[in-house]
């Protein structure tokens, strides 16, 4: 125990001296309000210096060494000045308390300043082995100490057992740091305590804290969705005027929903968020409309990968969806469920365990979507496939239809504009009047016409090219044209 106390004293001295030197070197904020990479790294270095002092004091108090009467909360963390670093800006925006801030410093340390955790290597002199309560793991490829959930729990509750609840909150999947994948508690083998998993910082957030480059969540089982984007603009969206009126209502909510909920105090009467169902045949613009709603209002739209959400194992589907909703709850994202009737279809009579599980899943989804504070759009080809109990909970039901002649004419012009040259024989008015086609089919025709022109070695498209391509498109549905 004596060696541990001497090491403690040396560590405290090292931290205090180093903090003084670093403070003298602290650069001033950039006049433009942007922090440099050097400032960003320095902020992380100072934060882990504070962590080192906290670790020293926690263990000192725990082992009743000299100075144990002091408490780690007496140690002031580095000050947070807006614009001084990206890390400081994030802490201010997230409004983290001291316990949460300490947790974040703990996961930053192995990469930025691994020696800050070396004190956890001390041995328990009574049994001549590491302290079990310190948690942590080591690896042959990394000589330092890797913190686990147990390490965080020791720092917070070793001297204040009631603060175990703070650990539970920070490691909960709904906590902002976990939900936004800033921190992660790695899974452990069956039978091991969950908190024995390594507690780490995500590479994408470390990269952001240093460079300011904000990477979007990676498509994975923990985030089963990918960003939905389109090069088109709102002005290029062509829909029947009745459909467009309903879409404009959704767009108005996205633009003014916050005002409505807060300033008009509608939050006292309705649940937050907005829920819509887009139904209609394929190619009528459901996916494009969702993408443009996000683009025109400055929101990211994430298309949920149903194949990664649905699991054959009972309980796994709920977990996959919960991770997704938890991550999105802190963002102004739009969640787009394509072919939604696969998950949100009519419930069956509970005649088997599988039926009961499917019905339970539907009920779970209803609750998650109702409680979600953001925007959810569910697309389905057939509205009749949707469960009525489900659709009643939606603010908007939008029925997309095959566009009429006027809309089709605009779609034909929009599709071919700027792509190729049109021969004088091309008559889009005649084509729009004669052939009932959705926007997606018209794009398929454009692709085929362009390939035909390329094979001829030119950029000109003729009326016959368009008619031949329409025939090919109709053959997919066993339709013939003369």
UniProtKB/TrEMBL annotation:
Keywords: ATP-binding, Hydrolase, Metalloprotease, Nucleotide-binding, Protease. Residues 272-404 form the AAA+ ATPase domain. Its EC number is 3.4.24.-. GO terms for molecular function: ATP binding; ATP hydrolysis activity; metallopeptidase activity. One of its GO terms (biological process) is proteolysis. SMART domains: AAA. Gene3D superfamilies: P-loop containing nucleotide triphosphate hydrolases. It comes from the Bacteria. The keyword Hydrolase applies. Belongs to the AAA ATPase family. This is ATP-dependent zinc metalloprotease FtsH 3. It comes from Vibrio aerogenes CECT 7868. The lineage of its organism: Bacteria, Pseudomonadati, Pseudomonadota, Gammaproteobacteria, Vibrionales. The gene is ftsH3.
